Amino acid sequence: ERTYIHDANLVLVTGKTMQTQLSKDYELNTCKIIYNSIDVDQKKLSSICSSDEIKFVYHGAILPDRKVDKLIRIFAYLPSEAKLDIFGEFILCKRRDFESLIVKLGLSDRVHIHGKFSYNDMLNFLPKYDIGIYLAQRIDGNFDITVPTKLFDCICAGVAVVMPNFKSIEEEIRDIGCGITVDTNDDEKIIAA
């Protein structure tokens, strides 16, 4: 970024927060916002509440700061209609620890781990879900100016999202109207969402 940004004739970003930060950091006059989203299917979003089963999905790397273990624990407090599928590669943590947690909490019929997947597979399975959920922990200021690709994956698949209340993510979700953000350090608010 630092090496090549001034060589660009135009810098495209996905939100106001990133535009402001890059313009400030690099004194850019050529930083423009482009929204790479589709119209959100409001009928699909409203039908989630009336469904017999609510299908949640987590997709992406499974790292300690992604709070997938916390997500599993929260499912113990959700209604039995809530189901969770977890797709991703385990990095710096062990799959068996997550599988043991699922068994210990009595969630084997509601929470399933599917492991690593290809991006093309994800494009096929994601539209089958109602809600994409991501409870990352803020580890540095980068989360305030970037947006995880998984947000756009869900938007393009017509899947509502529950994501961290980081500034740039909140901005995108508010502007697009595709879900809600939560304080990932407050379990009660996550459960209420």
Tell me the series of helices and strands, N- to C-terminal. EHEHEHEHEHEHEHEH
Mean pLDDT, as a whole number? 84
User: How many helix segments?
Assistant: 8
Structural class call reads alpha/beta
Across the major sheet, the strand order is 5-4-3-6-7-8
Query: Which ranges are low-confidence, i.e. pLDDT below 50, for 5 or more consecutive residues?
Result: 37-50
Distance between the termini: 36 Å
User: Strand tally, please?
Assistant: 8
Describe the structure.
The protein is an alpha/beta fold. 35% of the residues lie in helices and 18% in strands. The protein contains eight helices and eight strands; from the N terminus they run βαβαβαβαβαβαβαβα. It has helices at 16-26, 42-47, 68-75, 95-104, 119-125, 149-157, 167-176, 187-192, and strands spanning 11-13, 31-33, 54-59, 82-87, 111-115, 131-133, 160-164, 179-182. A six-stranded parallel β-sheet has the order 5-4-3-6-7-8, with helices on both faces. 26% of the residues are buried. Residues 37-50 have low confidence and may be disordered.
